[in-house]
Write a structure and sequence with these properties.
With 120 residues, the chain is of the alpha/beta class. It contains four helices and five strands, in the order βαβαβαβαβ.
């Protein structure tokens, strides 16, 4: 399901290695008329950042394999300094929050959270 006006819809890159998070958060964002692209690892996210334009990044902080959410934030900030960047983590730590501030992540959100699809 695409947003009603996909040409002007904000473009969101959602990065998480948990399929349930990708599915549920994508559904919520699409219901709010965002255009959503997803990646399940850092490498795929970096490829999407290199080949597409995004207005918003929502990325898990801890992912398997090389890199992490900070790598993705840094790449998107380099390509689009105006993008809004959000990091998701189930393990909030002061050092990570400080790193996120230094990398200019706009917010660190703590999992678990329950998305809602109800209208405002």
């Amino acid at each position: 399901m695409e947003p009603r006006n996909s040409a002007s819809a904000p473009r969101v890159l959602l990065v998480d290695d948990t399929e349930e998070i990708l599915t549920s958060l994508s559904a919520v964002l699409r219901s709010r008329n965002f255009h959503v692209s997803t990646a399940t690892d850092v490498s795929s996210a970096l490829h999407l950042i290199d080949t597409q334009q995004f207005d918003v990044l929502i990325s898990d902080l801890h992912m398997p394999g090389a890199g992490d959410g900070f790598t993705v934030v840094s790449a998107l900030r380099h390509k689009n300094p105006q993008a809004v960047t959000l990091l998701l983590t189930g393990y909030p730590q002061l050092d990570e929050a400080l790193d996120a501030i230094l990398l200019q992540a706009d917010e660190v959100l703590v999992n678990p959270w329950i998305p809602t699809t109800s209208s405002p």
